[in-house]
Amino acid sequence: MAGKREPANLATTLANMARQLLAQRSVEETLNWILRHAVDLVDGCEAVGIAVIRGRGVHTLAATDEMVRASDRVQGDVGEGPCFEAIRSRDVRFRVGDSVGMAERWPRYAPHAEHMGIGSVLGFKLFTEDENLGALLLYSSRRGAFSAQSEHVGQLFACHAAVAFSGARAAANFKAALRSHQQIGQAVGILMERHSLSKDDAFAVLVRTSKEKNTKLREVARHITEGGYVLSAGGNSAG
């Protein structure tokens, strides 16, 4: 199979993958790239998911198929499973190769996993020095599908994936902040022209409206620039 790499070529393969990962243009593209190449690279892998814990539930960030999403939903329902272990455990990786192993680790999740046809799970914590990004979970329908080599390769891949994911998310946050700053500036300009206000007074109107409506400042600015709010100089609005 073309995607499965022998150990001798692993360093070159991972280096090429790292460069390609960092070249992805968005968080979504980065996550989808990770999914595709995890299946290709890690021996035994048939399906992949990336998930985080939000509150008591497991939220799927990306998945290769519906089985992975179903697994995440079940974990949220029963409060345990590979995602919880990957994120909350001190260990950064684990490998479970049969229903007995799953029942010992996750007794409430295991029957559902067996029903969904999950025979083996390989899990990794996605993290950097500053962030816990979630879990990378690899699945197979076969028992004992993942070897020690699978675990080793998967761990190296997860390290590259975490750095790329973190970088893509930071870039997205920066772009969103820049758009927000520009939109607030536009809204201030509209208020200054419309009501003959100073820059400081126009910004104060935005802040006051944000508090009165219990709405984020960038949302108030967006409504103004799109014509959704007509504000008086006193901050009252219509529409």
Specify the overall morphology.
elongated
Mean pLDDT across all amino acids: 89
Q: Would you tell me which CATH topology of the largest domain applies?
A: Beta-Lactamase
Number of domains: 2
Residues in β-strands, percent: 15-25%
* CATH superfamily heading of the largest domain: GAF domain
Sequence of strands across the biggest β-sheet: 2-1-5-4-3
User: Quick one: biggest sheet?
Assistant: 5 strands, antiparallel
Question: What is the CATH class designation of the largest domain?
Answer: Alpha Beta
Number of beta-strand segments: 7
CATH architecture of the largest domain: 2-Layer Sandwich
First CA to last CA: what distance?
60 Å
Low-confidence stretches: none
Structural class: alpha+beta
* SSE order: HHEEHHEHHEEHHHEE
Task: Explain what you see.
The protein has two domains: 7-170, Beta-Lactamase; 174-238, Arc Repressor Mutant, subunit A. The chain is 56% helix and 17% strand. The model has no long low-confidence stretch (mean pLDDT 89). The strands form two sheets. It has a five-stranded antiparallel beta sheet with strand order 2-1-5-4-3, with helices on both faces. A two-stranded antiparallel ribbon has the order 6-7. It is of the alpha+beta class. It starts with 9 loop residues before the first helix and ends with a strand. A hairpin with a 2-residue loop joins β1 (47-54) and β2. The longest helix has 48 residues, at 148-195.
Q: What's the short version?
A:
This protein has 239 residues and is an alpha+beta fold. Helix content is 56%, strand content 17%. The strands form 2 sheets. A 5-stranded antiparallel sheet has the order 2-1-5-4-3, sandwiched between helices. Strands 6-7 form a two-stranded antiparallel ribbon.
